[in-house]
Amino acid sequence: MHRFGIQTKITLPFVLLFTVIIFVIPIVTISLFDRKYDEQFSLETREWLEAIVRTNYIYEPEKVKRAYRAEVVVFGQDGTINSSTITDQTNQALPHLATNLKFHQIQKRLKDESGDEFILKNVTVADKPYKVIYYLQPYGRLYCLMRPIDKIAEAKRQAISLMIGVAGSGALLVIFISYLIGKNLSSPISNLVAFTNRVAGGNLDIQCEVTTQDEIGNLTAAFNQMTVDLRNSRDELIQVERLATAGKMAASFAHEIRNPLSSMRMLTQMLRKPSLTEAKRHQSQQYILEEIERIDLIVKGLMDFAKPEELKLEKYDLQRVLREIASLMEANLQHHKISLIESYDSAVGPVLFDYDKIKQVIINLLLNAMAAQPSDGEIEISTEKNGDQVCMCVSDNGTGIPPSDLERVFEPFFTTKLEGTGLGLANSKRIIDQHGGEMRIESILGQGTKVTIEIPIKANASQA
To answer: Which of 217, 288, 370, 437 could be stapled to 432 by a disulfide with Cβ–Cβ 3.0 to 4.6 Å?
Structure first.
């Protein structure tokens, strides 16, 4: 469906209306004037012929020509020319006069139509227009009084040309004025539309200039105020969200380190007992160190999530990198009696990514899959080229994830494992987001889980 701009909607009706008015009125006026003038001219010609018949000038064509400045042609009953006042300069028209003056048609009408003494016709002889009045004389002779109307025709053409010129100028003037009116109305609206598009794009720090003091100006001012209100609301929401996120992360962090701190406190109290054997003392100290390492791991994961490092993008052979990771995990997989199936798309060429970050993501996914696998289970890692994206999948046939937990797997500190920090998948998703990609998890309880990662083959990454 074609859409017209507001300027076109304002200008077009005015142009069409005034163009019709400007062109139709002169045409109708000229037509009415021509008709009225022709009637008057015909009446005058008829009166001339009546006077000529009454004064017997009908038998003296030359006198008629001098008195009335008209031509006279008299045809015999058989169509031959009995007399003519047409000069020798136009004698080339004489052989065709009977045809040009429609002799046979007029003669038949005057003979057949009783009471019709005269007939008026417009004819052209030797490229010159005439108003001709026909009169049937005794013995079947046809008397033709020819009044030239070339000057009238020329005047009519000049009048039409003048009116067309005036109408064209008027139409151009109307178009110009309509354009100015439309532009004056549409410019503020166009500016407001451009401004709203920028606001819709997220730029709430701008204000639209108020250029008019009418309803459009009031609308612009109202929109500016609405933008200010939206910006204030956005800032408040961001602040609230930041505080809520900080509070949630603080609560999660406190919850995560509470258990190792409690264990360390209990073990430290045990170390104070004099009756404690050396073996027990050594074991307690070892447990304390392990809990400290656990706290350090939690703090490191939190720092990585809160302040991610910039990517170091280079082109790598993805298939070779995945095979390296599979070799690195081979001993661990064999220990848990888990088979790793590799399926790589040979169409995938060099891919731009951060080697260490992607390696961290894949290892984390493999560890999660192993934790969810029983003995003799299977894990499959595969790649596939999808347009300008490369798709990596890690799937297992383990216990699966409950639907209630599936929606929260990317939340920081959310975990169902006893020894998990809940930051592995959160950090993995953040890394994929940095690469300009997407990470999805599908899972069916009791059947397994599939993690799909898509990243651009070429550079399309965020360094934030």
So the answer is: 437
Same domain for 98 and 65, yes or no, is: yes
Residue 221: give the domain boundaries: 216-305
**Whether residue 39 is found in the same domain as residue 141:** yes
pLDDT, residue 463, reads 47
Burial of 169 (0-12, 13-18, 19+ CB in 10 A): exposed
CA pair distance 417, 409, nearest whole angstrom: 12
Q: What pLDDT score was predicted for residue 380?
A: 92
| Residue 164 lies inside a defined structural domain of this protein | no
Per-residue pLDDT tens over the stretch 247-299: 666 666 665 676 667 777 777 887 778 777 888 778 878 878 877 876 776 67
Summarised one tens digit per residue, pLDDT across range 445-457 is: 888 899 999 999 8
Of 274, 305, 336, which residue constitutes the final position of a domain? Answer: 305
Say how far apart CA 428 and CA 434 lie, in whole Å.
10
With 0-12 / 13-18 / 19 or more C-beta atoms within 10 angstroms meaning exposed / middle / buried, residue 30 is middle
Assess whether pLDDT exceeds 50 at residue 376.
yes
Calculate what percentage of the chain has a pLDDT beyond 70.
83
Dump strand ranges (E) for 64-103: 71-75, 81-84
Q: Please give the C-alpha separations between residue 42 and each of 36, 48, 122, 187, in angstroms, as whole numbers.
A: 10, 10, 10, 59
| Same structural domain, 294 and 366 | no
Cα–Cα dist 7/415, whole Å: 60
Q: What is the CATH number of the domain that holds 451?
A: 3.30.565.10
If you search the block for the tokens 């639907």, which residue do you land on?
A: 403
Closest Cα partner for 100 from 122, 69, 71?
122
Report pLDDT for 464. 45
Same domain assignment for residues 12 and 70: yes
Each residue of 76-102: pLDDT tens digit?
888 888 888 886 544 555 677 888 888
Neighbouring C-beta atoms of residue 321, cutoff 10 Å: 16
Last residue of a domain, one of 305, 321, 347: 305
Helices 215-271 and 150-200: crossing angle, nearest 10°?
A: 20
Token pair for 170: 């008027």
Determine contact, residues 126/92, Cβ cutoff 8 Å: yes
The reply to whether the predicted model has a pTM over 0.85 is no
What is the spatial distance between Cα 101 and Cα 146, in angstroms, rounded to a whole number?
A: 10
Does 127 reside within a domain? yes
Q: CA 174 to CA 49: how far, in whole Å?
A: 50
